[in-house]
UniProtKB/TrEMBL annotation:
It catalyses: D-ribose + ATP = D-ribose 5-phosphate + ADP + H(+). The active site is at residue 239. Requires a divalent cation, most likely magnesium in vivo, as an electrophilic catalyst to aid phosphoryl group transfer. It is the chelate of the metal and the nucleotide that is the actual substrate. This is Ribokinase. It comes from the Bacteria. Its EC number is 2.7.1.15. Residues 6-280 form the Carbohydrate kinase PfkB domain. ATP binds at residues 179, 205-210, 238-239. The gene is rbsK. It is found in: Cytoplasm. Substrate binds at residues 10-12, 38-42, 136, 239.
C-alpha cells in the first residue's frame, strides 16, 4: 500500500521573538533557522517516519532543489515533485517565548500543479491506497476527483482554512481532519455540524486536550486525551498528527489505534523546535 500526497513544499524561515509584534512595532529576533516545511512536506515526512511508503506530488522552483533533495534523503518518493520556473513556496514563522506562532505563506511553486501532473502520478496508484491533500496547493478539486476515480481513500487536512475550499471537495472525502477553530468556522459557513457532514470519519484536533473522532455513519463520538508534555514549538504538530494517523490506517490499524499513534507523535513533535526536519521517528514514540 502507499500514500499519495498532493502537498506543499516550503522553505520555513523561523524567527524567535519574545512576543508577537503589534501593528507598527519593530522587534529584534533572538534566534533564526531555515528548514524544510510546508504542510504537505511535513505530512510526507511524517508518513515515511511512521513506516509507510509515501509519494509526494507537487512542485518546487529553482531555489527549492535542496528541499526536493532533502525529501528524497528522508525517504519520501519525489518522482512526481516537478521542477518549475519561479520561486518555491516560503513560510515566514514568528515563534514567541510561549511556543505560539504566526505564519505568513508565499505559495510560489505550490500553485504550479497541473492536472497532467496529477494524472501521471496517480497512474501508479492502486485501489485502496490513501490519498491526502491540504489547502496550500492549487488543483485540489482535480486531485480529489482523480483520487476517487482511482479507488483511493481520500483524506483532507483543512488548513490553511477556507470554507469554500472544503465545500468544493467535501463530497469526495472519506476523512476530514481539522482543528477546533476550523470545525467551528466550517459549521458556521455551511450550517452543518461536524457529525452531519457527508464524510465517513471526521477528526477534530484539540491541541493539548487531544482529539475527537466522529464516525458519522453510526453517530459515535469519541474523545482521545493527549499525552502531557511541555511545548517548545507547536509548528508542524498538526501535520505530524495527520501523517501518523494516515500511516497507521495505511498499515491496517483501526481508527482508534491510528489516533493513539498520532497523538503520541504530535505530542513529541511539540517538544522540538522545527518542522519537517525534526518530525519523530516511529521508534521514538
Amino acid at each position: 500500500m502507499a500514500i499519495w500526497n498532493l502537498g506543499s513544499v516550503n522553505a520555513d524561515l523561523v524567527y524567535r521573538v519574545k512576543h508577537m509584534p503589534k501593528p507598527g512595532e519593530t522587534l529584534s529576533a533572538h534566534g533564526h533557522q531555515r528548514g524544510l516545511g510546508g504542510k504537505g512536506a511535513n505530512m510526507s515526512v511524517a508518513c515515511h517516519r511512521a513506516a509507510s511508503h509515501v509519494e509526494h506530488i507537487g512542485a518546487v522552483g529553482d531555489d527549492g532543489l535542496w528541499m526536493k533533495a532533502r525529501l528524497a534523503e528522508y525517504g519520501v518518493g519525489v518522482a512526481h515533485l516537478a521542477e518549475v520556473a519561479g520561486p518555491t513556496g516560503q513560510a515566514i514563522i514568528l515563534l514567541d517565548d510561549a511556543a505560539e506562532n504566526e505564519i505568513i505563506i508565499l505559495a510560489g511553486s505550490n500553485h504550479a500543479v497541473t492536472e497532467a501532473m496529477i494524472e501521471a502520478a496517480l497512474a501508479g496508484a492502486t485501489a485502496g491506497d490513501i490519498a491526502v491533500f491540504q489547502n496550500e496547493t492549487n488543483a485540489q478539486v482535480a486531485f480529489a476527483r482523480a483520487a476517487k476515480a482511482a479507488g483511493l481513500r481520500l483524506a483532507y487536512a483543512a488548513a490553511p482554512f477556507e470554507a469554500e475550499a472544503v465545500a468544493a471537495v467535501l463530497e469526495h472525502l472519506d476523512i476530514l481532519v481539522m482543528n477546533a477553530v476550523e470545525a467551528e468556522q466550517l459549521e458556521s459557513a455551511l450550517g452543518r455540524a461536524p457529525q452531519d457532514l457527508p464524510v465517513a470519519d471526521v477528526v477534530i484536533t484539540l491541541g493539548g486536550d487531544g482529539c475527537r473522532w466522529i464516525h458519522t455513519a453510526s453517530g459515535a463520538v469519541r474523545d482521545f486525551a493527549a499525552p502531557k508534555v511541555v511545548p517548545v514549538d507547536t509548528t508542524g504538530a498538526g501535520d505530524t498528527f495527520t501523517g501518523y494517523l494516515l500511516a497507521g490506517l495505511d498499515q491496517g490499524l483501526a481508527m482508534e489505534e491510528a489516533l493513539a499513534l498520532a497523538q503520541k507523535a504530535g505530542a513529541l513533535m511539540v517538544t522540538r523546535l522545527g518542522t519537517a526536519d525534526v518530525i519523530p521517528m516511529r521508534d521514538e514514540l
